[in-house]
Amino acid sequence: MSNRSKVALVYCKDYELDQVRQAVKEGLTLLGGAQQFAKAAEKILIKPNLLVGDSPEKCISPHPMVFQAVLEEFQACGAELSFGDSPGFGSTLAAAKQSQMLPIAEALNVPIADFQNGETVSFHEGRFIKQFNIAKGVLEADGLISLAKMKAHALTRMTGAIKNQFGCIPGMLKAEFHSKLPSANIFSKMLVDLNLYIKPRLYIMDGIMAMEGNGPRNGDPRPMHVLLFSTDPVALDAAVCQMIHLNEALVDPIVYGNEFGLGSSKEIEFIGEPISRFDTPDFVVNRSHGSTSTDLGILTSGLMRNYVTPRPVIMEDKCTKCGRCVQVCPADPKALSWKDGKDHPPVYDYSECIRCYCCQELCPHEAISVQVPLLGRLLHRQTA
User: Fold this and answer.
1) DSSP H or E segment with residue 223
2) pLDDT in tens, 251-282
3) Domains (ranges, CATH) in the chain?
4) In a 3-state reduction of DSSP, which class is residue 178?
5) Half-sphere exposure of 58 (CA within 13 A, CB side)
6) Nearby residues of 360 by Cβ (< 8 Å), 6 or more positions away
7) What's this model's pTM, rounded to 2 decimal places?
8) Hey, how many other C-beta atoms are within 10 angstroms of the C-beta on 211?
9) Contact (CB, 8 A) for 299 and 365
């Protein structure tokens, strides 16, 4: 009997509800059916990625039709459902409403779980983190179904099944993690331990329309026509890397997911559609070696760090001076200020910038990108 991790791949042309329902049912059936992951009367939390509230066309969150189809399948098992996430900005209610998930949940009598309040829990088995503050809605559930979106990401290159659980940490506590764990390397270790603690029963990813480029909020929609299903988030995220020709060794959540025993990206068993059907080598994502803040060793310390490491940059022609970037910056003291007054875009102090890219992630106007300084680009070519 094979011990390889299974990843179910299902083709879905678009978000027409009946097509999505059929695709979701097919994906679950390939893994034994929804009843394998939820029993009658169990409290099951459906956890979509609700980074921020915005229209489905932006491809920031799983599409509401995928959300609806997943709810319907698990309701049919007799499970007692709730849903929620801790968005990067604002409330769960507002994000769910703006992403058009709230009306669907209300129509199906699925309540919002408590993601505003948390409880501190110990995790002695953690390889890197021994304690978390977890949203009460997560702790009160018997099981969690993770519903991710396929997207490029500035810090971790791509965001998927593993990173989705970061939203199980309530409110502004996520900013504390970014402040304490600014590099992709150590941040990813935390993500893997978080998944090991929560132990989602199933991971589903909406890649019918993905996001490439300046993700996870301000990138461009890219049709991939695929839904992915697996009990192994490492294998699922690695499957995405195969589709988009991204070296998984550059994706720290996959690297540490393998190392810490969260799952395995080795010898994945693909069921359903062949992965070659979704081959997209020109997907826009950071593929370069030596382009993260930890890849250049001693050069990333002290004054040299400002000249070689990737950094967020405000595009003045797009900036509306809304101040969201200043508000969400977790650095202390903040790396952004109104140095030239509020009639001008905020100004970075890169000596204070921790390179968490929260500003880029949560800018509502696509006005911040991540760029590598000239010296850094030259050094990166030499170390590639």
Assistant:
1) strand 220-230
2) 999 999 999 999 999 999 999 999 999 999 99
3) 6-278 (3.40.50.11440), 297-383 (3.30.70.20)
4) helix
5) 19
6) 154, 214, 218, 312, 368, 369, 370
7) 0.90
8) 27
9) no
